[in-house]
Design goal:
β5, α6 and β6 form a beta-alpha-beta unit. This protein has eight helices and six strands; from the N terminus they run αβαβαβαβαβαβαα. It is of the alpha/beta class. The structure holds ribulose-5-phosphate. Ribulose-5-phosphate binds next to α7.
Length: 181
Amino acid sequence: MGAPILSCVHKGVPGIFMDCHMMVAQPEKWVDDIADAGGALYCFHLEATDDPLSLIDKIHGRKMKAGVAISPDTPSTSITDAVGAAADMLLVMTVYPGRGGQKFIERCVPKVAELRARFPDKDIEVDGGVGPKTIGVCADAGKCCSNVIVAGTAIFNADDPTAVIQELKDVVNTAQAKLTQ
Ligand SMILES: O=C(CO)[C@H](O)[C@H](O)COP(=O)(O)O
C-alpha cells in the first residue's frame, strides 16, 4: 500500500492509527509522503539504512512515531541501546519480508525476550505467521512479551475473523496483566 491508499483510508476512517511498516530500500525517501498521508507510525527496516538515528529524528520531526524492524536473520543486538531508546516501537519479523501466509519462524522469538529485557517500556511487535497457534509464545509474560501483534492470514482466512481477533487480544492482554501483578 502506498501513500495514496493511506490517504483514502485516513479520510474514510477518522482517527485511525496507521502503523506503516515500510519494507522498502531507502526508507528516508518516504517519510514525508507517509506523514502527509496521515501515517501515525513509520516503521523502517534496520537493514535498509546506514543512519537509523537520523531517520528516527526525521520521523519524529514529522510528528510520527518511529518503529525499527529486524528481519529473521538480523540479531536483536543489531538494535543498539541508542537506537532502541530513540525508537517508539521495535518490530521482530517472524517471517521473511515479502508476503503473507508464511510459516512462523520460532527461532526469532528469543529476540523478543532480549529486546524486552533491554527495553522494558517499549512497544515490541511481532509480525509474520502469527495466529491462535503461535500467539502464546509471542505474548507470554516472562518468556517473550511482545505487546503489539500483526496477523494477516489467521484473520482473513478465518471462518470467524472477529473471534480470532478477540482470541489474539485476550492472549496478549492476559500476558500483559500478569506483568503488572
Ligand atoms: O507483510 C508481511 C510479510 O511480508 C506480514 O508478515 C504479513 O502481512 C502478515 O501476514 P501473515 O499473518 O499472513 O504472516
